[in-house]
Amino acid sequence: MLMRHRGLDPDVHPDAFVAATAVLIGDVRVAAGARILHGAVLSAEDGGVSIGEDTVVMENALIRGRAGHPSAIGSAVMIGPHVHVNGSVVGDEVFIATGAALFPGSRIDDGAEVRINAVVQVNTVVSKGMVVPIGWVAVGNPVQLFSPDRHDEIWAIQRELGFVQTVYGVGNDVSMRDLMHSQSDFYGHHRNDTIVGPVAGEN
Q1: Cis before 142 (ω within 30)
Q2: How many Cα neighbours within 13 Å face the side chain of 192?
Q3: Are 12 and 32 in contact (CB under 8 A)?
């Protein structure tokens, strides 16, 4: 399904495929040969989402673009089932495995792999050909890799990366109530979304 959001419509190349139960919202661009499978959601909030040629977005993946942090996925990329990509730039020939999460400002360079349930934190760069192991956490630039049980070491780096500022655009002193009030307003823009039609080839 294609949805207009903030006055912008998705654009799908005629040689791409978007499953009937996938949802593309707003400024989403899908290139030739790309395949967006069932249950996937590509949501351009106030920043774009682009999908390169011959890239496959598997079932129930979420790709979100935000202001200052569009999600740009390169060519010949595999985005596995239940992957969460939020404001990340992904190069060509990258493998993002099931359940992985990429946070705003992160970059995954060409040929890298982010394996099952791995996490790439805000403003982290995974260099060309690098592998983030199953369940591990990539943090920083230059990147450091940690097993998930090393929380204190992860946090020592992560707290300097500006998570709240990068993701929400506010300082650390903002209360949860105020933060969620602003997020409620932000996502409230979806009340004005309109269906602009099924993808070509749907019944």
Answers
A1: yes
A2: 12
A3: no
Q: Could you count the other beta carbons within 10 Å of the beta carbon of residue 155?
A: 12
| Sequence-ordered list of residues with C-beta below 8 angstroms from that of 185, at least 6 positions apart, any chain | none
Question: Any idea which residue has 């019944």 for tokens?
Answer: 203
CATH number of 2-197, picked from 1.10.3860.10, 1.10.10.10, 3.60.20.40, 2.160.10.10: 2.160.10.10
3-state class (DSSP) for residue 140: coil
How many Å apart are CA 29 and CA 73, to the nearest integer? Answer: 10
Token pair listed for 194:
């309109």
Q: Which residue has the tokens 């790709």?
A: 63
Give yes or no for a contact between 111 and 129, defined as CB atoms under 8 angstroms apart. yes
Residue pLDDT, tens place only, 74-124: 999 999 999 999 999 999 999 999 999 999 999 999 999 999 999 999 999
Q: Is the pTM of this model over 0.85?
A: yes
- What are 113-168's pLDDT values in tens digits? 999 999 999 999 999 999 999 999 999 999 999 999 999 998 888 888 878 888 88
**Closest Cα partner for 71 from 61, 118, 82?**
61
Query: In whole angstroms, what is the distance from residue 136 CA to residue 23 CA?
Result: 30
In whole angstroms, what is the distance from residue 53 CA to residue 77 CA? Answer: 9
